[in-house]
Design brief:
Rossmann fold, 2 domains, five-stranded parallel β-sheet, alpha/beta, 5 strands, 10 helices
Length: 273
């Protein structure tokens, strides 16, 4: 006959085992498994599940939490100015914009191919919205992303040059999978700013994917780069080698919202630039 331990002895052994398990999980830095071990054990016990099922469910919770944490860190490091998603974009307001193409790009297959995307169109038509939305999706898919305005990037290079930290800045850039440069052409650049941006784009060529937003057609890009035709030509040659060019036509969402508010109607959905 098998000798059974007294209930008090069994409870003590169980508590000791739980304490050891939590201690080991803490040492192994598995906070979710540490936190959920008792709850999952109770659920599996009620289901008469196996030890393997218990371990599987605990591991799934840990992996899911780590993925969520990694995504949150990438989103924070990207420094997006706003939170925008493809699902929030009002495609009905821009009927000529190919919705399927944007949804396909949101799969982020262009990132490992080191391809670029250029959004071109008037101010207020949703260029920044779409750029940020694609960048956020790239973060979710495990890519390192960074957002800049064109003027902010030029200033960052100027400061790095003054502090003799350009090489450090460029090493940080090389660690990115995708870089978004917003508002290219909105603010004129001086000669140094133009040269810094040219150097940045040259460095990214076939190394880092880019998403650019601009209100200027390619023919007007020399005015961005200090009216240097040769510099602009060389830049466009690199940027358009592997590129998706998406033109956006339509009235500014901000202007439309303002007009509707004056008329007393419901505001249009604002979609940034």
């Amino acid at each position: 006959m098998t000798q059974q331990l007294p209930a008090s002895k069994t409870d003590s052994t169980k508590q000791h085992t739980e304490h050891l398990l939590k201690s080991y999980l803490k040492t192994l830095r598995m906070p979710t498994m540490h936190r959920e071990s008792s709850t999952v054990a109770r659920q599996i016990g009620q289901q008469h599940g196996s030890y393997e099922l218990y371990l599987q469910q605990l591991a799934e919770l840990e992996v899911a939490q780590r993925k969520a944490g990694a995504i949150a860190r990438r989103l924070k490091l990207a420094r997006f100015p706003v939170t925008k998603e493809i699902s929030d974009f009002d495609f009905a307001a821009v009927p000529k914009l190919n919705k399927k193409r944007l949804i396909d790009l949101a799969q982020c297959d262009f990132v490992p191919l080191r391809s670029n995307i250029i959004f071109n169109g008037p101010p207020g038509t949703g260029k920044t919205h779409l750029a940020v939305a694609l960048g956020r999706e790239a973060c979710r898919r495990g890519y390192q992303v960074r957002f800049f305005t064109a003027s902010g990037l030029a200033n960052l290079y100027r400061e790095a040059r003054e502090e003799r930290q350009v090489l450090k800045l460029e090493k940080q850039i090389q660690k990115q999978d995708l870089i978004i440069v917003d508002e290219l052409g909105y603010i004129p650049l001086d000669r140094h700013g133009a040269e810094h941006l040219f150097g940045f784009f040259s460095q990214c060529y076939e190394q880092v994917s880019l998403i650019l937003t601009t209100n200027l057609p390619f023919a007007d890009w020399p005015q961005i780069f200090a009216d240097d035709q040769r510099m602009t030509g060389a830049l466009l040659d690199r940027l358009t080698h592997h590129v998706h060019i998406i033109g956006i036509e339509g009235q500014s969402f901000r202007l439309k919202t303002s007009q509707q508010e004056k008329k007393g109607g419901p505001p249009a959905q604002e979609q940034d630039q």
